[in-house]
Design brief:
- By secondary structure, the protein is mostly helical.
- It is built from 21 helices and no strands.
- The protein has helices at residues 3-14, 18-31, 36-48, 52-65, 70-82, 86-99, 104-116, 120-133, 138-150, 154-161, 171-184, 188-196, 205-218, 222-235, 240-252, 256-269, 274-286, 290-303, 308-320, 324-332, 346-359.
- Helix 3 runs parallel beside helix 5, helix 9 (138-150) packs antiparallel against helix 10 and helix 11 (171-184) runs parallel beside helix 13 (205-218).
Length: 360
Amino acid sequence: MNTSLIKEANELHRAGRHNEAERIYANLLSRSPNDATALHYLGLLYAQTGRMTEGLALIDQSIRLLPTKHQFYSNRAFIFLQERNYLHAIDNFSQSIRLNAFSAAAYFGLGQCLLRLGNISAAIQALQNAIKIKPDDPKSLILLAEALFLSGRGVECLATLNRVTVDQATLEDFTLLKFRALLLVKDINQAMLVLFGLREWGGNYYGLLINACAELRRGQFLQVALGVIDYAISLDSTNAIAYEYRSDILLDLGKLQESTAAISQALVIQPDNPEYHFKLGVLLQKRRRFSSSAKEFERAFQLNPSYLAAQMNACFAWLSDKNFKRGWELYENRRNWSSLMDPRHVRDRKSTRLNSSHAN
């Protein structure tokens, strides 16, 4: 193995100069076809540049030539992780750990896989092992904090986050997770201080506000969520998603008229969004404005012909409006309504069907 050339190629590889790195790896292999290291790194380069099949074949070959190299298994595992092939990734991370029990990267990757598969307790153990080896690694600490949060251990999550040295790359994930953990332990005041303390941050603060609003709504802090979304709208009144969130929160608060106005504003910004027409139809139907709601459902279905929930609700709305001819036309032209499996519309379908029955 030509160590200096491998080092040069690795540096080019890390710098994103893939063509130059590839030439060096290929030249090395032309002189020494069984150079496991060159094979391995060329395979990684292939995998990272969209040539996954060829890349994995080279990596497999490198491992057959040098089966005791723990980094080879770890690198192959990260490729599987990127492809969401979690079980193969776990096998490779585990083999890397068997060969070297002090690989923080392998424990970190193993923790990622286990967390994505929902095995939170095993993920916590793997990430704790990673941190024992590399105590100040911000990625491992934040992922451990996320696992602790998902297991309902808010106090431990916050204690772990307090160990993180935050940089620009981790600031957004760190802040949102800390915000969520503070909501979990019901410390709403501190959560808001964390959120508004980033007003001068140069990153995607607007997106952070939207995500924070979703967390507040999930935690039933509805009035606070409404204040946050109104603040977001004051920063940018052209974002339809903010008005959609405002409509959802107002609906949760039982304010149907204001909720209708908010989703109508979202439609002013995005008039061809079928989801917004559907939501407006649901709100109008709740307000017993059946003819208007039916038109919104039909518009949603026109914009997205696969939106069967909209077609079904339009039928019920016309029937509730005593427009039996149009309702029957939609019923006659119906598609397979029994195939409606979209969980986003289950609640709305039930509620609109109940409203329709009541109206008749």
